Amino acid sequence: MTNASLTKRIAALREKIDDANHRYHVLDDADIPDADYDALMRELIDLEAQHPELVTADSPTQRVGAAPSGAFAEVHHAIPMLSLGNAFTDAEVADFVRRIEDRLDRTNPQFSVEPKLDGLAISLRYEHGRFVRGATRGDGATGEDVTANLRTVKAIPLKLRGDHVPAVLDVRGEVYMPRAAFEKYNRKMRETGGKVLANPRNGAAGSLRQLDPRLAAQRPLAFYAYGVHALPDTDATARDEAQADTAGPFERHSDALAQLKAWGFPVSGESGTARGLDELLAYYRRIGEKRDVLPFDIDGVVYKLDDYAGQREMGFVSRAPRWALAHKFPAQEQSTVLEGIDIQIGRTGAATPVARLKPVQVAGVTVTNATLHNIEQIRRLDVRIGDTVIVRRAGDVIPEIVRVILDQRAPGAPAWTMPPTCPVCGSELVKDEGSPITRCSGELTCAAQRNEALRHFASRRAMDIEGLGDRFIEDLSDLGYVKTIADLYKLTLDDLVEMKRRADERDGTTPETVKAGKVATKWAENLIEAIDTSRRTTLARFLYALGIEHVGESTAKALATMFGSLATIRTLPWPIFTRVPDIGGEVARAIGHFFDQPGNQQAIDALLERGVSIGDETAPSPKLRASFDRAELLASIGIPKLTPIRAVQLIAALPARETILAAEPDVLDSAGLPADTADAFVHWRAVAANRALLDRTLQAYDTLDAQLPRGEPVSAGPLDGKTVVLTGTLSTLSRDAAKERLEALGAKVSGSVSKKTSFVVAGEAAGSKLDKAAELGIEIWDEARLLAFLDVPTPS
């Protein structure tokens, strides 16, 4: 590529990316997919990396953040960033309008009106249409230079659009964090154990004051412009306040906002004009009604006299304009007392701590409860019962506690701990490994999880009960016909018809079960037949249908293949499950916890008693022998200091279960274990629960070991050890059928392409998985090759 063509290509890429940013952030009318946008950006980054001399300050690539600066320089605002007077009542607004009418001798003057965003006010300086400096408000006269951080905000144009741009512009606006982005960011932080943001405003302010712009670039910030001043082509730092009311060639503020949008700045779509007091108050109420559904936080609305001539005549008082006013909404944060913490169980079993609060008015609503999210959030806040706390309610977001007023805490207040059992069903509460989420392990018996358990149990890839949709599940559960999944198998035709009649009466609808003077039962007959058909199933489907945490179809098939029968699987302690390839400690513990709950075992018994049968049970697979090692099993339990090497020494010296359970430190020492390892093992074993787990694990190992053949070669399938990915549409076989055939030959069928993928089968309209396979150099099969390999006749 020649220098000229290279320069032209880079310019074209920048223009396309700038236009895409403008359409997305300003016009809210994205015209290219994210993948295309990312491809353009990658190409530009690569070209600029190869030719750094062509990088410019206004290139879209410069938004990613530079190295930390170490400090913020002071910026003296050429035009002061003034505060606004506040009004909290209609009467105060009426006084504001009356003063303007009296001073200007006008009736019903026109105002520019806009939401008052709850973010961080900033000033942006543009010279000859290019962004050169950005600063915080500071004390109004002097702010902090946060240019590098502001460059990372994609809604702020680095280069203005159009040809008629004044030489120097000072644009005022608000950096904020959209609600959805704030919630998504905090959700990710909670899941990863990161630091959550207290509220969107603090998130925006804190992001702009990061010394490392690369951190600011990771925060989901947005921007709205609300003012502009045209400056002389100088770097003046002090201006007379009387000059602060001009915006170049504009006669009205509403015209200036329209021009800002034409130059490429986002301007709130809720901005407009209103004439006189009645229209101002109507605007306030209209925005107040929409407040909860707006995509950003606001704390009021702003009224500005629309014509600049009138603004100049009104002037200023106490460094605040007489021609503008902020009409504030009720506060969204208040203090109250935390009276208790309850546990709420969600439909998937997640246990959420909920604060019981002394009732308090927040944003016009009485708040008595607030979410505490999870145990990690409670620890971060260090919140304790009896504390005085700050509660925030923003929009339709559930109220939450954002901080504790520590100097009001009672001496000796104890830290809060998660209760050990579910308040709904009494099953054990188990914390997910590597996650802040705690769950109820009574998946099959917990009333809070009932509907979700029923949906999953009846789904197509589980028990496949055709016709049992969400509506019937909710009615069966709400009206008391089904309390556990096993209750599905005692339903009668009369039960279903009666349920439908009661549901129709409850909803006030015309009974659909009555047609032409007689009861219509075909739908109920079909559902009873589908339930009856589902009684006969496979072990893999049955295990998947139980809804065990972390057990998807692949894991269910692996368990069924390796252990062969439900009777075996339901009695095993969790360490045994780690012997199955691709099952790690977290998944194994989840399976073990599930089968350790008496309620889950009772539900399984009830299913079997009501005729559910598994037709493909076998003895444990000989393949289990390859990973079935007593020393590796002991090492997987997590006994302190018992490394795989030490476990081998222990088993070599003490092969019998009884001797391992009884061995004292001197015996362990003679077995070759270091003193600290021996002591750690004895102390761990002294805990009753640990000893019971060790005993169960060793007994289960001995039982399975006796069932597995020795010295017999295990015949491998032609795809053993292979990982296959299916993508696109197959015309002869369904994706599910192809997956079953491949798995029967030993393959692991994965949903994503990685370096471990053996080959990809690409059907029609294959997408990004095919692209990634080509990028990684992975073998690609078409459907014809797959059919030939599987010996499936192709359609003529």
Automatic annotation (TrEMBL):
PROSITE patterns: BRCT, DNA_LIGASE_N1. Signal peptide: none annotated. Pfam families: BRCT, DNA_ligase_aden, DNA_ligase_ZBD, HHH_2, OB_DNA_ligase. InterPro entries: BRCT_dom, BRCT_dom_sf, DisA/LigA_HHH, DNA_ligase, DNA_ligase_AS, DNAligase_adenylation, DNAligase_N, NA-bd_OB-fold. The active site is at 116 (n6-amp-lysine intermediate). GO terms for molecular function: DNA ligase (NAD+) activity; metal ion binding. Its cofactor is Mg(2+); Mn(2+). It catalyses: NAD(+) + (deoxyribonucleotide)n-3'-hydroxyl + 5'-phospho-(deoxyribonucleotide)m = (deoxyribonucleotide)n+m + AMP + beta-nicotinamide D-nucleotide. Residues 714-796 form the BRCT domain. Keywords: Coiled coil, DNA damage, DNA repair, DNA replication, Ligase, Magnesium, Manganese, Metal-binding, NAD, Zinc. One of its GO terms (biological process) is DNA replication. Residues 3-30 form a coiled coil. Its EC number is 6.5.1.2. Gene3D superfamilies: 5' to 3' exonuclease, C-terminal subdomain, 6.20.10.30, BRCT domain, DNA ligase/mRNA capping enzyme, Helix hairpin bin, Nucleic acid-binding proteins. NAD(+) binds at residues 34-38, 83-84, 114, 137, 174, 304, 328. Zn(2+) binds at residues 422, 425, 446. GO terms for cellular component: cytosol. PANTHER family: CHROMOSOME TRANSMISSION FIDELITY FACTOR 18 (PTHR23389), DNA LIGASE (PTHR23389:SF9). DNA ligase that catalyzes the formation of phosphodiester linkages between 5'-phosphoryl and 3'-hydroxyl groups in double-stranded DNA using NAD as a coenzyme and as the energy source for the reaction. It is essential for DNA replication and repair of damaged DNA. Belongs to the NAD-dependent DNA ligase family. LigA subfamily. This is DNA ligase.
